[in-house]
Amino acid sequence: MNLALHTFLFSVYPYLCLAVFLIGSLVRFDRDQYTWKSDSSQLLRASQLRWGSNLFHIGILFLLLGHSVGLLTPHFAYAPFISAQHKQMLAIVSGGVAGSICFVGLTLLLHRRITDPRIRATSRRSDMAVLIILWLQLCLGLASLPWSFADRGDAATMLTLADWAQHLLTMRPEPSALLAVPVVFKLHLVLGMTLFVLFPFTRLVHIWSGFASLAYMWRPYQLVRSRRLHGPRRAARARREI
């Protein structure tokens, strides 16, 4: 990979993606709230959706949580409890299982959307694009497992990726740290960041609503009281009932 392109992709591009992700989501919510939905196709065909959707969402939520914790947790925070090698093996096994579950679910959803004429006719190009990109991203993630397994001895690749992500978070990007990382990991990172660019312009925005619904867990109960009628209004209502 060209050094200038490498520097751009792993030092500037992440911040561009984050800016588009946040500002684009805010603008869409402000201007096009009626398009802020998941556009479910359950009414057109319920079969295959239940398995595909459940498997996909279970897998993708675990992967998102695992990637966030694995990449953004400093090494010193977990070193007293688990070694880097054991942490990498845990990530390989759990990520492989969750990725396989997600892959099966997403493949079912993609097959359903492509092969059903009614669903395909009502699908937008962005719907198909998101499913295909997510499918490719999962393929890259699963394809990186053999490299991770071969690297389990010193967990160098995992530590390098985590160090790069944590430097991004603290506004101190170090793209040179990824020069020796296998290309499959780089493609996985770039495609993952690209999904953040596409996020505000596709049905993916409904993820915000999913996280926002957690607020209902702490929302106080709504009290509903019967309205008491007094005086002339009560008498008028009694006459109507008679």
TrEMBL record:
Membrane-related topology note = Multi-pass membrane protein
What catalytic reaction does the record list? nitrate + a quinol = a quinone + nitrite + H2O
Keywords linked to the UniProt accession: Cell membrane, Electron transport, Heme, Iron, Membrane, Metal-binding, Nitrate assimilation, Oxidoreductase, Plasmid, Transmembrane, Transmembrane helix, Transport
- Superkingdom of origin organism: Bacteria
Does Electron transport appear among the keywords? yes
| Transmembrane feature ranges | 12-29, 49-69, 89-110, 130-149
- Give the enzyme's EC designation: 1.7.5.1
**Main location per the UniProt record:** membrane
InterPro entries according to UniProt: Heme-iron_electron_transfer, NarG-like_domain, NarG-like_sf, Nitrate_red_gam
Instruction: Say yes or no: keyword Membrane present.
Output: yes
* A Pfam family: Nitrate_red_gam
- Tell where it localizes: Cell membrane
Q: Which GO terms describe its cellular component?
A: nitrate reductase complex; plasma membrane
On assembly, the entry states: Dimer of heterotrimers each composed of an alpha, a beta and a gamma chain. Alpha and beta are catalytic chains; gamma chains are involved in binding the enzyme complex to the cytoplasmic membrane.
Note the PANTHER family from the entry.
NITRATE REDUCTASE PRIVATE CHAPERONE, REDOX ENZYME MATURATION PROTEIN REMP FAMILY, RESPIRATORY NITRATE REDUCTASE 1 GAMMA CHAIN
Protein name per Swiss-Prot or TrEMBL: nitrate reductase (quinone)
